[in-house]
Amino acid sequence: MAKLPTPEELMKLNYNPPQDENWMDKPVELKPGNICWGAKGKNLKIVEFPNARDWSPVEADWKLPQDWEGTVLEAMADRLSKYRSFKIFMDICVRCGACADKCHFFIGGGDPKNMPVLRAELMRSVYRKYFTNSGKYLGKLAGARELDLGVLKEWWYYFYQCTECRRCSVFCPYGIDTAEITMMAREFTNLLGLNTDWISGPVANCYMKGNHLGLEPHAIMNSVEGMVDDIETITGIRINPSFNRKGAEILFVTPSGDLFADPGTFTAMGYMMLFHELGLDYTWSTYASEGGNFGLFTSNEMAKRLNSKIYAEAKRLGVKYIIGGECGHMWRVLNQYMDTWNGPADFMEVPKSPITGTVFDNAASTKMIHVTEFTADLIKNGKLKLDPTRNDDLVVTYHDSCNTARGMGLLEEPRYIINNVCNKFHEMPENTIRERTFCCGSGTGLNASENMELRMRGGLPRANAVKHVTEKYGVNTLANICAIDRATLSASMDYWVPGTRVAGVHELVANAMIMTGEKERETNLRGEPLPGKGGNE
Amino acid sequence: MKVVLPFIAVVVLALLALVGVTLAHQVEFFFGVIVPYTAVAVFIFGFIYRVLQWAKSPVPFCIPTTCGQQKTLPWIKHDKLENPVTTLQVVGRMLLEVLVFRSLFRNMKTEMTDGKIVYGSEKLLWLAGLAFHWTFFFIFARHFRFFFQDVPSILSMMEGVDSFFQVGAPLFYMTDAVILGAVTFLIFRRVYLPQIRYISLASDFFPLFLIFGIALSGILMRYMFKVHIVAVKQFAMGLVSLSPIIPQGIGAIFYVHLFLICTLLIYFPFSKLMHMGGVFLSPTRNMANDSRMVRHINPWNYPVHVHTYAEYEDEFREKMKKAGLPVEKE
Amino acid sequence: MSLKHILLEKKDSLLALWFDRIVDTYPAETAKFLKNQKDRFANPVGQTIHEGIEGIFQELVQGGEIAKVSGFLDAMIRVRAIQEFTAAQAVAFIFFLKSIIRDGVKDIPLTSELAEELAILDSQIDSLVLIAFDIFMQCREKLYDIKANEMKNMTYRLLQQANLVTEIEGATQETTFISIPKKEVNT
After folding, report:
1. Residue A534 in contact with partner chain C when CB distance is under 8 A
2. Distance CA A523, CA C1 (A)
3. A&C contacts, CB < 8 Å
4. pLDDT digit string, tens, across residues B122-143
């Protein structure tokens, strides 16, 4: 008989390392489906990044600059002296393992190096070798190793497999935040020209054209115009948004994804309908047409460069304050970085709702409030006429974005809104929401398509919780306040829990909101018949 | 390797002290005077040095990990301890973290398929960690009776609590049993759980074995070999009054105990044990989530190259005009 | 005693074996986690394996419906289809059942009836693998669909604007919403 492998032999892979094997001895293998394409030289050149050239991670030669090791180690020394977080997180981990099973990539995929502690050790091992005496003299015994090409590839592979979601940091007894370490790794790799195409493309676009998609001013207007048409069809009301208008009271900034990609567009329509109904004196900007910031996934400096447009534009237009749309990492930046980078925003006033008179002291310095804070206040003060039955075909659950949950604490505002515009709302299990929420699996610029398997693995824990409420309560709508969520959860739901709609909170608001002078609505914002109004019921 | 080597190291250290003082009494001066003074000095200066080194690096951004509702609208309940905005609230959060290991306590509840709630192994880690650290502190504090002529009442009280069951002679301290149990569990866990063993380093095992050795030698000294307690006190008083004396007949086991402690003190500042100091400096825990209320200053914030509006308009002016957008320059 | 009875009697131990064998195809550090983490939300993979093999076993032995077996297979294969397994590796776990059952009945005298029943069971297991392979392919194709859909979602409005596409009046517009049945049945 032919000598064929048994099923067991077939399945063994080269997994199951011998028990005493050191993780350092296992070389990294860059597997397609897990990695994004390399950055294009032209995009790196636009933002004046070093070593700008086309490169491919799957090729052996990464076309690295001369003495790249020196570049990395020098940068490491520099960042250690600039970031207390980095320095402390390199030193104090006791490897207790509390974080080990908290990462969505580990849970969904099972690669041990996706355990947050080990992801961080990839960096710590090099830190020990060059920055501690024990590592210098005891080497591997002290958990230290030299920086070589294999290590660099391993860094690149695993630090572009971390979504900086900070879930591990919630469970760490010392608050060690892998996001801080991943950010450093991405700084270092960017010094060598090792960004991904999916991140560096939007960064270059945003830098030159004001938004990730690279929409030029007239394209933005056209897109909004298209939505205005749709709104008129649905409500009979013609909205007249303004752009780059000086003297407006409020500048509105939202991720550009909401202007183009379904289902984000329905959320954008929601904002416009709301602001129109209130008669808000606000303007869009084509220059600061991006709330999101892929620079954050690149380097601190790049993030600051992109973010600068928001305050600059607010100043140029002379607005009193800024409202920010539904986006996750955008709010990490706005809450924890913007004012420090590009403030002080002393040319504006403390945000005050013109409708309710509420003063948002919590944004006294940044002068920028979250649209759900604004809307929750409206609803609480009874300023909106709402008919939640229009959302009665939706059984809703809510996904907390990592960044608004763990980098801000915006937990109740969206829930309060949803509960006022929808009649059917069910929470997912408690260890999967709020500060313990699971990442969509595609944050930090991992929402490319060439790494779809990785994304699906990372999305499994979130999807699994959705599936649970789908089976238990018949949930069919996953609400969220993040543009990346709207795009990536759509894909993840399509694979794991088909039939689940992904919707922004303001889409639900606009569906339920009765506008002055609107015609009898037949459909929701997606053009589907309202409950009790259509043939499909 | 990473388990055996640290174990051997601790055994060798213990034997060194044992054999040393047994063979030659002159060595007692080395183990009893030189080593302890060196160790204390290394510990104190090392600890301060490390903390200063950390403190030298600034905190450029306000990056607390928020674990509860932010402070916003007055009618939304603000979670003061999980998402602090004032210094007092931060202190509260830190106290929870440092005294009861709040973060480790999270997510222990586990929902099984059939809807039953059970508690998983994570609770054991929290419990063992808590037991270990608290008993360590208790035992450490208890030892201060050797350094006071008149034992402060708080120490006597602690001893009273610790020997509450009034068994054995000398009275048995509960903490002795607890610390041995907890350390054993922490070692066992690192050896037994594959994912924990995988991430563990020699430097994770060494302090555990060392502390086990310290606890064991201490217990042997108290209950089995019964060292000359008056002599020990004499010795300790000598050390603190900076006029060291080596009383006769203390017993070799005492030097083993002392030497292992000194090793721990010397090792401390160079190791992960510095988490004791580091936890207070961790920016994700010790900062208030007030970065929208008050501007956080980055001391090394520097100007960066940006793409200005003027440059943007220059590039798109014609297109903007055609689309009816206002422009600055015609 | 028929094979069915024997298998039902030993169900728990057989399933435990099967579970271990599957989980051992992961790295040791992961295997422990998959086995020990009992929280279904913290450990969706382990949970899916648990539910899947129990369902498959039950249906196989009881002679249940193909649609039901497919449902259980679907849940398991859906996970394996995105977990760095080759097609063969993704479905091979079903074959494990053969040797596990053989070992399970090795103490029982091999009568000709038992041998025949075992042969039938073997061929049923073979069929399961074929179904699993279909599911695997569907999952992989789904992934490519999703990639294509994402591209379309991102660019559709741009194309619309550029007047490169127009909707034909009256044609049904494709949406990614609720008209899709709740649970896809893959048979």
Report:
1. no
2. 63
3. 160
4. 688 889 999 999 999 999 998 9
